Amino acid sequence: MDRGLEMKVLIVDDDPGVGLLLDTLVRDSGHEPLRATDGEEGFRVFRAESPDLVLSDISMPRHDGLHLLEQVRSVDSEAVFVVMTGIGSEQLATRALELRANNYLRKPVELKVLRGLLDKYARLQERRRISEEVKRLAVEKEIRIELPNRLELIPEVVSLLLSEVAHLFRREELLDLQLGLYELIVNAVEHGNLGIGFEEKRSLLAVSPQEWTSSIERRAKEERYRTRKVRVGFRQEDGRCEWVIEDMGEGFDPEAVPACFGEGIEELSGRGIFLAQLQFDELEFLDKGNRVRAVKYTSPANPQA
Q: CA 42, CA 97: separation in Å to the nearest integer?
């Protein structure tokens, strides 16, 4: 097999005989086998080794295959997960597919079928690797978005922005960027475009989250605010990613944002912006405070960069 198609394959089965058989087949197919005897151990190995493919029995003591599948999908949507089920376990296989397993095999596993799956998924992983490599060839990239005052769109806007840089940062860095961009864009809509102050927001939330949501929707329809938009710009070049978020509000005094943690931080009106400052290498407020520039540098030491 082409060395470029080699995968890490995690085998999770409490039966030593089955584990040894699968280990041998995986190794003979040119891949690197990893072993675990139940879901709990399997998830530890998964977090430590980041395998490309998981072959997991469903019925195991302690943590079963369905629990492992849920854990894996909570941290990785890309890894291929194949469950193995015994006769009479069709309902479990259906449940696994609902939890986003990629495929299932019936035990005893037919070795010819498993070899075919290994080859299929190895080629899929290779295409993904090539795709990521091609993405890294882009030395400059730019996006511009105009967002209406609809809070329900913000998570999707953030996902779109992060899809452009997912190959440049580690998972924990992407989570930081997700939180930071979300805070900045929400702030631009609520406090910028719609002019809602901290005290007003707190009093509405004290009534109920529904009252807060309804208030946002009502204000967004008012003539004074309905044409306002948040402009989001993204640019990647020279080892840096830059996001510029601009609202059409009256602005604010950036000096009022706290510079460090302190007692009662949860009560501060600038808490969201303060937290966003922790997620970027640079955060700068421009003009009258209604335009913010956030920068994150890509690291040469980053294993995904």
A: 19
Nearest CA to 52 out of 104, 101, 11, 7 is that of 7
Predicted confidence at residue 47, as pLDDT, reads 93
The distance of Cα 43 from the centroid of its chain, to the nearest Å, equals 18
In contact, 7 and 125? CB cutoff 8 Å: yes
How many CB atoms neighbour CB 161 within 10 A? 20
Reduce the DSSP state of residue 267 to 3 states and report it.
helix
Number of H helices, E strands in the chain: 10, 10
What are the domain boundaries of the chain?
3-134, 140-297
Q: How many CB atoms lie within 10 A of CB 265?
A: 13
Pick the CATH number of 3-134 from 3.30.2140.20, 3.40.50.2300, 3.40.50.300, 1.20.1050.10: 3.40.50.2300
Element (H, E) at 195: none
Superfamily of domain 140-297: Histidine kinase-like ATPase, C-terminal domain (3.30.565.10)
pLDDT digits (tens, 9 = 90+) for 177-219: 998 999 899 989 998 999 887 777 778 777 777 777 888 889 8
The model's pLDDT over 154-174, given as tens digits with 9 standing for 90+, comes to 999 999 999 888 888 888 888
- Is this structure's pTM higher than 0.90? no
**In the sheet that 8-12 helps form, which strands lie side by side, from edge to edge?**
32-36, 8-12, 53-57, 80-85, 103-106
Residue 139 CA to residue 275 CA, distance in Å, equals 30
- The residues pairing with 236 across neighbouring beta strands, listed in sequence order, are 141, 241
Q: Can you give the length of the chain in residues? A: 305
Tell me how far the alpha carbon of residue 71 is from its chain's centroid. 14
The pair phi, psi for residue 278, each rounded to 5°, is -75, -15
Kindly list the distances between the CA atom of residue 234 and the CA atoms of 90, 141, 242, 251, 253, in Å, as whole numbers in the listed order: 47, 8, 6, 21, 24
In this structure, the strands spanning 8-12 and 53-57 are parallel
